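Hey L., structure's done. Input below.
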Amino acid sequence: MDYRVLGRTGVRVSPLCLGAMMFGTWGNQDHDDSIKIIRRALDAGVNFVDTADAYSAGESEEIVGKALAGRRDDVVLATKLYMPMGPGPNRRGLSRRWIVTEVENSLRRLGTDWIDLYQVHRPDPSTDIDETLGALTDLVRAGKIRYFGSSTFPAHEVVEAQWVAERRNRERFVTEQPPYSLLVRGIEADLLPVAQKYGLGVLPWSPLAGGFLSGRHTRDGGEVTSTRMSRVPNRFDLSVPANQRKVEAAIAFADLAAEVGVTLIELALAFVLSHPAVTSAIIGPRTMEHLESQLTGGAVTLDEATLDRIDEIVPPGVNVNPEDAGYVPPSLAQPALRRR
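Output:
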């Protein structure tokens, strides 16, 4: 396994990070099977595991905790907070109050004394970034967490957080976790250069574009169904023109992969890992079969000619469907904020 340095931390992680979103009620409800998948990944050399408190309402963290029993010291463990964890108005967000409360809940569910990388799942416009950085800095100094990072932050907010940390003598975000794939390349325009400038490790989520790059779409057609079509139609319903364009691009990428002599999954993972800003790509298997099909992706290297062909299908900096950007600023999502 060719381990990579996580940003400028000196911590070495595998090029594939095992994402645990699909372990629990959101995906694989069999805890024993989920634990086997996690341990298989560890046996294959993956030493980086990412989860979140909100995944299956904490169930994912519990499963990960069980799987890491006896192996915790060898694993770089990451989790996240921000999403709602109950009906109360303060059981969410990035306030000091919630951060200090929720880190204890995650530590308990994970069955560990510390978290290696504690990430804020999305920006919180209602909370001063200094409040968030201050609370996270205190957790580092208390030994509850080793480092902290952001997820799906726009480039300008990454920069602001770096500046605030420097001016207020806070610990800083050392990683960013954005959406990135053959179909979702918007971050190439600004976020990835910013991450390189500040030395952040980049941990792309959904490198298979939510399954569009799994190989399930073929030229002979066939009806492809997914529970996500009803839950997130703007990103997965194939009657939406932008999603149909994703299917067409995915088929073109499958043809290219066959030409190169790799699977579409390997092409997709190798592409994400080829960017010099990227540290580790987060894979999210639900089954052992999914895991096995993805483990080889970290060992594939694409030549310049193949990368040029990829650019011809989806140009650099382009999201085939803009809805896949992962975060919409409140100024665009809430009409009241843009009324005069």
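The mean pLDDT is 95. The first strand starts at residue 4 and ends at 5.

-- N.
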